[in-house]
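User
Class, as today's exercise, I want you to study this protein, comparing sequence with structure tokens, and judge whether sequence predicts the tokens.
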Amino acid sequence: MHLGLIMECDYRYGTTQEDSFAEAFNLVDAAEQGGLDGVWLAERHFAAPRNPLDDAGAGIPSVVSSPLIWASAIAARTEHLRIGVAVNVLPLNHPIRMAEEAATVDQVSRGRFDFGVGRSGFARSYEGYGIPYSESRERFQECLDVILAAWSNERFSHQGKYYTFDNVCVLPKPYQRPYPPVRIAATTKETFPRVGGQGFNIFVGLRGMDRPDLVQSLAQYRQAWSDAGHDGEGDVLLRIPVYVAETDQRALDEAKASTMRSYRRMAQNFASSASVTGATADEERAERGQRLAATTYQDLLRDRLAYGSPESVARQLGEIQEELQLSGFICEMNVGGLVPRDRVLNSVELFAREVAPALR
């Protein structure tokens, strides 16, 4: 049972970038000292601070535009935590450069690195990099193919739609051979059977999907995995909002405003991006936006969150693990970015001290 934290590295309104780095490293230290298994860095671009009263504004401000540099810094200050990225947005990165940098992190951490990959649903990031979002699927697959070939071969050649390499040697090679564990973000219905058939482990989340959605999609993932002849059933980590306080009521009260703001903004983003060039029917952006717009706090608590006292959160996560047959959880402790720093840190410490032992 893997128990880790997602690191969005929030840039809080009215604070400095230096405050954001300090807060993130404090959470890393709490995870290490508390005996958690890992931290997982997001990759966010053009996430500038906005007035917190602007509900229709951009996503939560963040300073984690270079997750592999963050990962190397975290590796240098920790001894036990695994460090992952959830996820490296492959279409926005050059595959050779990413192969070199990710292998470097794996060497620096002496094999504590996990390579999470995806293509992101934020079209604004693609616009900022001058890459059409309509190319994201093809670019993602070609980038992944190149990176794995670079790690698996002393030298390799590649001729594709976006990249061509002739007899190149990429160094360093990863510490873990032939390469670090690869995990793909599964966010749309078509992703689950496709990735299952390829034999990759996955991340899943409770943003665009709720638990009933995931039950169906994971069944398709595992069936495709089996049909392709892969051993086992596939390894699934769930990213889930978690908030722990001394009592159930305190947890629900402290996290409510921030959580509802986040999901309302998410509903608006899904709806407004439904017509983005390159968005496909299986992403169901308009439908997801409509569902989230009508969702109440009680709905979220039932299907998408794990909030409460340590005992309540342990019970909720245990039920979710049994229902979805998960390998672990990646916990998002500050959904919406508005929970005070000291209470977020308290939630992490309570989770590590009282919830994690009950789940292992």
